[in-house]
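Re: beginner question about structure tokens

> Can someone show what the tokenized structure looks like for a real chain? I only ever see the sequence side.

Sure, here's an example I had lying around. Input first:
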Amino acid sequence: SNSLSSINDSTEIIMINEKAVSDKKSVADDITNLASQGNAIIVVADTPELFTMNENKYRFTAFSEDCQVSCMGTAPDGGTVCHSISGYPTEAEAIQQAYIWAAEIDSMETYAMDGGIGYNEYYTYNQMCDPYGKMSGITIISQIEDTNDDSNYFVVHYNHEGIVTSGDTKDNMTVRSELGSYLQGNQVIYDHAPRNEPGIQTVTFSYGLNFSASDGVSANFGVSWDHTYSECTITDRSDVGAGIFEAFYDLEQTSVTADNNLIVEPGLLLRTDAPDGAYHAHDTYSVTFCNVVIDNVWCNDFRSYSHVVDFTVYPDDGGIEVN
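And the corresponding structure tokens:
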């Protein structure tokens, strides 16, 4: 911990092996300071505890509990980037992936909108799905600048990727976010895409200026994206009343879409009235792979892989503890 507290070069990549840590709280405090300084931090551990034990000192935390390595850094636009690595055959391979992530964070593509956004936060993930391939992606959470002093509004843009590396194929992909169970349902899904249109192949998420909610709140911001895939049927499985968002992508096995890398991009707009002012979510990103026995005729050995992550995003106007 003494050596960590003496680091004042924000370009230095910090790697910590939790097995060698005797005083977790002291190291967690040093990590908090290094993160605010802008260092890329790599923690080798089965859980992200060295980050999450000081969760209320960060504006943003998002990690998978089932991981080999957890990372935190700063994006070029100033947003926090949290990163989880899992599923690699050896710890050394996972650490190698972490250093690749740290080397690229300064040049990562950030999220530009037309205005009205307070800040962006980024969660990225890299999970091996042996022997079929891997899943990876980036979830962008953006706070909307609004007129309400009691509530906070966020846009979430998912980019969930399924990668086939073994010559097999994909059967389906899913993005699911559970929001309503936090503190007796103090979070509301205002809108989402895909939305209640059976059999669609295009997902469009678009909001222009002058968003106005039923409670009289207004916000001026711009956000728009869409994606279209052939040989894929997209289904909205959300239960908005229960605070659950779920987008299901049913792929035609052995098609060009299923056999190649595929990024799906659903999204949602939400309000949180949580006492701490923060956005909280429990997300699950899934890919189902299968073996190709007879091309375009028969597949077997279906296997689903899931990546589970918990989010906390504090607003600019409160909720975060001062170091």
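Each token stands for a local structural state, so reading them left to right follows the chain. The CA atoms of residues 238 and 245 lie 4 Å apart.
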